[in-house]
From TrEMBL:
Full protein name: GMP synthase (glutamine-hydrolyzing)
Keyword ATP-binding listed: yes
Domain GMPS ATP-PPase residue range list: 1-58
GO CC list: cytosol
Enzyme class, broadest EC rank: ligase
Pfam families: GMP_synt_C
Lineage: unclassified sequences, metagenomes, ecological metagenomes
EC number per UniProt: 6.3.5.2
Originating species: marine sediment metagenome
UniProt KW Ribosomal protein keyword: no
Keywords: ATP-binding, GMP biosynthesis, Ligase, Nucleotide-binding, Purine biosynthesis
Annotated pathway: Purine metabolism; GMP biosynthesis; GMP from XMP (L-Gln route): step 1/1
GO MF annotation: an example: GMP synthase activity
Length: 185
């Protein structure tokens, strides 16, 4: 489960991937003052403490880092490709006034390559799955019905600006039926 319920027992849906202690040799104690708060509750605390808007509305990011969004083996090349694509996604979501309206927006580099054409050159590059969801607490999430023009612009920019991707697909599955992030098995 994403966080511990204060209202009673909850079933364990999955192990939390971004928790854990420090190595014992560090001889430090982990302090977790927000440990029992859900993500939406953390935002409320941040608002009360008058944190900057960009901190309050920062989208959740996986604890293991970007590599969890590369299906299969993650190397520097794939991570660089994904970083570039993610930056375009973030720019377009912000430009179109959607950043505060969506819970998360990100790309997932799939272990699939497809044939494409750039100019008059044949390409054989990766497929990027675009994931944009809305949620209140991260426990459930629904895919966002992004206007086609915005999806088209995101796709076009990624394909034309990110070397290594020649196809973008939009993931329309919801959580809890599917996880927000894909999972390397």
């Amino acid at each position: 489960i994403e966080s511990i319920s204060l209202k009673g027992p909850s079933s364990k849906i999955k192990s939390h991937h971004n928790v854990g202690g420090l190595p014992e040799e560090m001889e430090l104690k982990v302090l977790e003052p927000l440990k029992y708060l859900f993500k939406d509750e953390v935002r409320k605390v941040a608002k009360e403490l008058k944190f900057p808007e960009e901190v309050i509305w920062r989208q959740p990011f996986p604890g293991p880092g970007l590599s969890i969004r590369v299906i299969g083996s993650a190397d520097k090349e794939k991570l660089d490709i994904l970083r570039e694509a993610d930056e375009i996604i973030k720019q377009e979501i912000k430009k179109n006034g959607l950043y505060k309206k969506v819970w998360q927006s990100f790309g997932i580099l799939l272990p699939i390559k497809t044939v494409g054409v750039m100019g008059d050159i044949r390409t054989y590059d990766f497929v990027l799955a675009l994931r944009i969801v809305t949620s209140n607490d991260g426990m459930t999430a629904n895919w966002v019905k992004i206007p086609y023009a915005i999806l088209g612009e995101i796709s076009s920019r990624i394909i034309n600006e990110v070397k290594g991707i020649n196809r973008v697909v939009y993931d329309v599955s919801s959580k809890p039926l599917q996880r927000l992030a894909y999972r390397n098995q």
